[in-house]
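Private note to self, pasted from the team thread so I don't lose it. Backbone tokens:
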């Protein structure tokens, strides 16, 4: 088995900034409430001309340039997203065409906010076994298209953006153990009820605003603060590491209070935790790769350092993994 590593990284966020003050003009909320309950100050919103594949393409181009890999050398493109341009063709196929990666197979991965970690697991396995050489893994979202801007309990949380990594055989920035899981019995607490085969689009589903994100915030909160530490502790136990062996932590950027509770339980410090949600909100599948790419570009990680990743989301799903820089 070969080692699989991250060869390049990139991200792209739309130009338009939607602040908490802007949201307070739209729904009954305030900058103070949003900051105190979530830590979010602003988020990016895609232009009406932009779709998920456009953001994904920009992030992918940056990752490929950084990896110095030609699009023709990519064997597989995975786009982890809950906001594909459309059900089909897949957003990954649209990206393939945009970047000219015509030797690549391409598909979308649906595991809600944990999708990027699921994608890492898959890419690692395929590269390690020699089934493929280079995989372009992208987490990309235009969540503003499925957020109900009349619902203050959800519209303050989410934003748009994309992050990408190129994964291939490498002795550097290596993917170590990755564990993913799911509990479908909790699917109802975070979902987009209509628009699929269960509730196809009708005038009624539109009138009932069922094409938007519906969420039981408190239940999601409870799930996250128990499952993420449990999964991370399970990962460390499996590979015989202690929390002291971890240099950096990149959690899914959903809510600062969730992150604070998780690091407290794990015994990690705020100084070693990468947080960017004040700028972008929760970008679902894009949140971990954007945070990773931003920190890597800023030179935060030193060679050999261990980076713990942890995601969670609808499904319910979760995933945790270890990177060695
Ligand atoms: N502005 C002002 N008040 C708001 C508000 C907003 N944006 N959203 C909700 N409220 C109100 C509620 O209506 C409620 O009012 P009431 O007491 O009069 O009924 C009050 O604030 C408290 O609501 P509650 O839901 O208990 O707040 P909370 O502390 O649980 O915070 C979330 C709400 C959504 C921020 C929090 O539950 C959360 O972040 N959950 C996880 C969500 C998540 O991460 N989802 C994605 C996972 S991938």
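Design output:
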């Amino acid at each position: 088995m070969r080692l699989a590593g991250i060869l390049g990284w990139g991200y792209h966020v739309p130009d338009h900034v939607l602040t908490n003050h802007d949201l307070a003009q739209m729904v009954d909320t305030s900058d103070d409430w949003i900051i105190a309950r979530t830590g979010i100050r602003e988020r990016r919103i895609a232009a009406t001309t932009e779709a998920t594949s456009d953001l994904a393409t920009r992030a992918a181009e940056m990752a490929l340039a950084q990896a110095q890999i030609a699009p023709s050398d990519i064997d597989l493109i995975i786009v982890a997203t809950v906001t594909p341009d459309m059900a089909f063709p897949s957003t990954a196929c649209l990206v393939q065409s945009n970047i000219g990666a015509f030797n690549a197979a391409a598909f979308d991965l649906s595991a809600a906010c944990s999708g990027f970690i699921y994608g890492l697991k898959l890419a690692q396995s395929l590269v390690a076994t020699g089934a493929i050489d280079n995989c372009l893994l992208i987490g990309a979202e235009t969540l503003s298209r499925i957020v109900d801007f009349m619902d203050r309990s959800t519209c303050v949380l989410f934003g748009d953006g994309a992050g990408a990594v190129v994964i291939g055989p490498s002795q550097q920035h290596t993917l170590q153990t990755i564990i993913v899981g799911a509990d479908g019995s909790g699917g109802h607490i975070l979902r987009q009820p209509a628009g699929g085969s269960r509730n196809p689009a009708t005038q009624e589903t539109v009138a009932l605003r069922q094409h938007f994100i519906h969420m039981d915030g408190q239940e999601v909160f409870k799930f996250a603060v128990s499952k993420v530490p449990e999964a991370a502790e399970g990962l460390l136990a499996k590979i015989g590491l202690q929390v002291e062996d971890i240099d950096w932590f990149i959690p899914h950027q959903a809510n600062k209070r969730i992150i604070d509770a998780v690091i407290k339980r794990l015994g990690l410090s705020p100084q070693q935790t990468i947080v960017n949600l004040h700028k972008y909100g929760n970008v679902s599948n894009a949140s971990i790769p954007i945070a990773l790419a931003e920190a890597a570009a800023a030179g935060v990680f030193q060679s050999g350092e261990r980076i713990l990743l942890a995601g969670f989301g609808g499904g319910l799903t979760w995933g945790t993994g270890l990177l060695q820089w």
